[in-house]
Amino acid sequence: MGVRESDQERDRRAGPGWGPDRDLPPRSERSAFRVSGTRHRTGDPSRAPGQDLQHRRHDQEAWLGRRPVPGAAHHRRHARWLHPSRGLGAGRELPDRTPASPSRETGDVRGLRLNPEQRDAVEHGEGPLLVLAGAGSGKTRVLTARAARLIEQGLEPTRLLAVTFTNKAAGEMRERIEGLIGRSTRGLWIGTFHSVAARVLRIEAPNTSRTRAFTIYDEDDSIRTLRDVMESVGYDPRRWAPRALRGRISGAKNALMGPAEYESEAFDLLSEVVAKVYPAYQRELERRNAYDFDDLLFETVRLLETVDGVRDRYGARFAHVLVDEYQDTNHAQYRMVKALASKHGNLCVVGDDDQAVYGWRGADIRNILDFEADFHGAHVVRLERNYRSTGSILEVANAVISRNLARKPKRLHTERETGDPIEVVRCDDERAEAAWVSSRIAADRSARGLNEFAVLYRTNAQSRAFEEAFRRSGIPYRIVGGVPFYERREVKDVIAYLRLLVNPADDAAFLRAVGWPRRGVGAKSLERLGDLARAGAGAGEALEPLAAVAARARHEDGIPRAAARGLRRFAEGLADVRASLSGCGAREALEACVAAFGLATALAEEEDGADRLENVSELFAAAEVFERDDVEDPDDESTDLELFLQSVSLRSDLDEADFDGEAVTMITLHNAKGLEFPVVFLGGLEEGLFPLSRAMEAPGGLEEERRLFYVGVTRAMDRLSLTYADHRWRAGMASRSAPSSFIDELPEEHVLPQLAAPRRGRWRARDARGTARRPPGGGEPGSRSFSWQRGPDRVPGRAAGSGADGRSGPPGELEYDYEDSQVPLSLAPGVRVVHPRFGAGEVLQVYGFGKEARVEIAFEKVGRKKVVVAYAGLRPDC
DNA sequence: AACTAGGAGTTTTTT
DNA sequence: ACTCCTAGTT
Ligand SMILES: Nc1ncnc2c1ncn2[C@@H]1O[C@H](COP(=O)(O)OP(=O)(O)OP(=O)(O)O)[C@@H](O)[C@H]1O
């Protein structure tokens, strides 16, 4: 995962005399070494902390003269967080002030250049502190420097808690602090709210209803569980979408509303259902020894606020609490912070209300705006100088954000040169957009390293076109976030076995594992198994885990012979694996499961078996190098496997096989918050996509989208290009869209006159002839909300003329010919056609183009059907 | 029980 | 496009 690194890089350069860190090879190589260095530690918990440090130092020496073995770099956990823009981009800034002496000895972090306000914040003593400042003003630098300074002044790292909003930010902060103090930050609690909460819950397990080995349910697990629960409470999951229920419950938990509170506030039909299901769902999670994401926060707050002594214990344990991106905290997080810092009030939060982009998750900007009133006597620092971007970029950012009405005015200035104007590029479609970006990068490649480029976008789906373009032109890239590989079916399946090993009560894992590979156990048998569990429990008693019932499944219980055997063997297999494991290593456990249940064989036989196997072997690699240091604590006795699984659920680890070499970064705007890149391409600036129409449905949605745009703009250090496409494939259908309204908000003087990317392929609009055929209103009323929206204004004259082949088509039609397109499309919604078998009908919807094109047709006789144009033999009905 | 086709709902953003 | 679920088939 890419994260801002240049700061750290600069910080390193700041001190030519800074301990062993001087003369570092490029970042990536260092991480490569860390891989081998830290591998020793994995699975060797007996090693004393001191030894560990020595190891690290040893590695550091090795950096001086050696280059790493290529390929050794995979999966060192922090490596992934390194900022792509490390290196060149970062180096253009003058070195920071040189410290008087190597800081490792003196404990001086002031070699890091800080302006007076920043220094004020860094050196602020006890008591609450708020740094409220705009983008690129050095907030994170302050937070990091402050942490480093506290440690250098002798505070044990274990007594520091630093909380961030995303995993990337957490990893990055650790890196930065380590960079500053030149040694390991072992024992420092640093992580996301969720991971910190999970850790508290592990340590405090005796004070909770769960054991230390609890499972963390992700959204998918939650929904499945809810479905089960709904059924047992008597609601039909087809009538009430479990997904919607989950949303409500999640919202409630983040507002710290338990089932009882929720019930009293039920206000509509759905919430009445929720009120019934919520308590049952909580009981079920407890039975399964599981928490869902939101429980982590909820339970931690409950623990801190209501269980005697817990809050004081953590209050005493942490002398200081630091929170980054505070504007994105929701109520539960706020209460958690408050409880943790209540004893001493040493709470330092930094944030920017203009970058609040998680409202949809319950984040409340008031947390930061009211901080002063809330934490009495808080010291407030404001930073107004931006150190990141050129004048043009900053002006654009200022202009954009000033459009927001619900906002405290704030203006950033920079001393940097004006720089190049930003550019806005119009493209035909997403492929043209991606092609333009990639040709741009290819052209600049000689001048800049690929790590200096980033492509930002609103939705993950947009990465695909870029990916293809980069692949075509041989430009290495890395995708941050996206669909994580552990969300793939096969990976989840394999992980289910591990989960069951660790937490036998995890029915969701049981159901997954028992269903794959096939072992003669079907839905009926599983239902019977559930009956058995119910029969075995007395009234009010918790049901026995399904995995346990499975161990004694018998034909006499009404389970088919084969199924009963399958169940028993499954249970035995698990028991065997459990018995055979000598240690608690994740890799070891994985291997044992794969071997015992023939998982690899089963996978290999599947459709894209090779790919799936590949993914599973990546899982192996991830398990292999899993390190517990980030989650390690003297009070935390969890095993490696337990921690590994929890990390997986928290998405804090594992990644696709990304590598640390030179590569363009592709990342969503949300994920990019907090990062910086010399050259930024921000794609998809189209009305409906960005600002995203769905997001605008919520109150304040447009302003939040605009803040997100502001975040995007302010990621750029030197150059910024915005692109939009006239046509785009969205959700399986072609759409046209207008340029984003955000483009109109840009100050002209800083924008290069519009460019248009060269055309690729052929999107042709046909009009003129046949206009009469156009259906009134442009589409079928029943056919979703889609319409071609070909206003007369959009199709000047005969557009691109008739097709290359001279054929003309119906009106309002979009035609897209890529090189391989052989079937010029002459279909559009509303057109009447005749099918050789189904007869006459009217086109409702067109999916895809060329050979792949399919149309949905409402036939007069047989109703709606989807047919493949290339094979259907459709003729116009005239 | 296992497989398959068809359908329905999603495709914002993240922990 | 895509995944997941359901219903109907084998
Ligand atoms: N006093 C300073 N002197 C030189 N460079 C600085 C100074 N303060 C910050 N910077 C640089 O400015 C850039 C932005 O800093 P930082 O990331 O800490 O800002 P931020 O306020 O956290 O930004 P954002 O809100 O956008 O995440 C970094 O490259 C950092 O190294």
Share of β-strand residues = 5-15%
Q: What is the count of DSSP helices, taking H or I runs of 4+ residues? A: 35
| Large-scale geometry | globular
At the fold tier of CATH, the topology name of the domain at 391-483 and 659-757 and 784-820 is: Rossmann fold
Name of the CATH homologous superfamily of the domain at 391-483 and 659-757 and 784-820: P-loop containing nucleotide triphosphate hydrolases
What is the CATH first-level class name of the domain at 391-483 and 659-757 and 784-820?
Alpha Beta
Write up this protein.
The chain is of the alpha/beta class and 878 residues long. Among the domains are: 391-483 and 659-757 and 784-820, P-loop containing nucleotide triphosphate hydrolases (Rossmann fold, 3-Layer(aba) Sandwich); 832-876. Helices cover 41% and strands 14% of the residues. The protein is built from 35 helices and 25 strands. The strands form six sheets. Strands 11, 12, 13, 14, 15, 16, 17 and 18 form an eight-stranded mixed β-sheet that branches. The chain has a six-stranded parallel β-sheet with strand order 3-2-6-7-1-8, with helices on both faces. A five-stranded antiparallel β-sheet has the order 24-23-22-21-25. Helix 7 (139-152) crosses helix 8 (167-181), helix 9 crosses helix 14 and helix 10 (219-233) crosses helix 13. It is globular, with a radius of gyration of 29 Å. It starts with 5 loop residues before the first helix and ends with a strand. Mean pLDDT is 74; it is low at 1-108, 654-658 and 758-826. Residues 4, 6-7, 10, 113-115, 118, 133, 135-141, 352, 355, 387-388, 674, 676, 714 line the site of adenosine-5'-triphosphate (ATP).
